[in-house]
Amino acid sequence: MNKTIYLTTICSLLLTISEINAQDYTSYSIPFTGNGFEINPSIKSLTSQKEDISLDNKKIKRLYFKLLGSGNIDIKLKGNTKFKTELEVEFNKTHKTIVWEENNTLLNLGSYTVTKPGYYYVELKTKNKNIAFDDIIISGAATDKGIVYSNNPEYFYWARRGPSCHLSYEIPTEKNVSYYYSEIVVPKGQDQIGSYFMANGFAEGYFGMQVNSSTERRILFSVWSPFVTDDPKSIPEEDKIKLLRKGEDVYTGEFGNEGSGGQSFLRYNWKANDTYRFLLKGEPDRNGNTIYSAWFYIPETSKWKLIASFKRPKTDTYLKRFHSFLENFDPNQGYFTRKAQYNNQWVYDGQWKKVTSAKFTVDATYKANQRVDATGGTTRAGYFLKMGGFFNEITQPNTLFQFNSENIPPQIDLNSLP
């Protein structure tokens, strides 16, 4: 080979390799606010405020994001420390101890390799309280196809809660529906603090069960006011939800922050792996109002218990938009996974009609690509929903599930309900 051609070829190859090695990748700066959590299993109560949650540097911190590609990834920490300190770092099961010099605002946490797309976290631990974690900055081939993280301050609170997901049931009748019936089973280990397993949702409210703390659980039934506001005190008297009846030991009052209206709940220590039954009634009173009533079946007494009966003004309707959902309402608990089975759905239009299909839908947090760990499907007994914990299972929103239960209609004497 001609020496000139040979040298030209070698130089060209070296230049190509140099260009590949020097390839610029998009750099992403991921804020701890909206994407970070204190990892502390001893947390016992919920946090409901919508303000940004500051992170306590005495605890382990994790910041989550989803990589859409694979390959190398370079990770840096933006923050500051007033004193020299050791920082324990974990990424993708690799552990490092890095010395963080005082007044260094950009710390190199190292280069790593990921072999497949998915959710990952950077975990940081230090005993130094006089430090601040602001952002994790990542770049490299693993980020070349993009990443998913909460980059919109309007979603930071909601992203830490995680995306809620829903089952929208197809109603098997064109007649007026006055009752909804369904059952829920929460598998053991899926009953995390902050969970709301909503059984019988309708156009004007919702009815299901919650985990409010390590010592308290509730059966919750709420009806929205026709006056749209997040402040219940601003609702005009003529638009307020009126309590007509309530069961023994049931608390009733008002709620706000996510719409406003009338609320009721029974403190009841429901258990994982047990089946719980929910019955909802909605009928117009022919005076321009609709009466909504909710009953919960108590297994220990083998009886239906009235939760509450509310009158919603300026409403003339039967039950509409039968649905269930799963959500986490505590932003500090958003790194835990929740899952529930939603079974045996029926509607009543003069006789019981079986529900045989449901559409999987997601909330605005998922749709805005701020966080996408929500899924659903069918089981041997019905449907399931799963959210939170940064898993990688994907079910396309608006997927229609079919399930034809062999169960008989609910055996309820509707005229003898309390």
How would you summarize the topology of this molecule?
Layout: H1 3-21, E1 28-31, E2 36-39, E3 60-67, E4 71-81, E5 85-91, E6 94-100, E7 106-114, E8 118-125, E9 131-139, E10 147-148, H2 156-161, E11 165-169, E12 179-185, E13 195-201, E14 205-211, E15 217-224, E16 242-246, E17 250-255, E18 261-267, E19 275-284, E20 290-298, E21 303-312, E22 323-328, E23 338-348, E24 352-354, E25 357-362, H3 364-367, E26 374-378, E27 382-387, E28 400-402
Antiparallel strand pairs: 1-9, 2-3, 3-8, 3-10, 4-7, 4-9, 5-6, 5-8, 11-22, 11-25, 12-19, 12-23, 13-14, 13-22, 14-15, 15-18, 16-21, 17-18, 19-20, 20-21, 23-24, 23-27, 25-28, 26-27
Domain DUF5077: 30-142
Signal peptide: 1-22
Keywords: Signal
Q: Can you walk me through this structure?
A:
The chain folds into 2 domains: 23-149, Jelly Rolls (Sandwich), CATH 2.60.120.260; 162-416, Jelly Rolls (Sandwich), CATH 2.60.120. Helices cover 7% and strands 45% of the residues. The chain contains 3 helices and 28 strands. The chain has a 9-stranded antiparallel sheet. Strands 12, 16, 19, 20, 21, 23, 24, 26 and 27 form a 9-stranded antiparallel sheet that branches. Strand 5 (85-91) and strand 6 form a beta hairpin. The longest helix is centred in the first third of the chain and has 19 residues, at 3-21. Mean pLDDT is 90; it is low at 3-22 and 41-57.
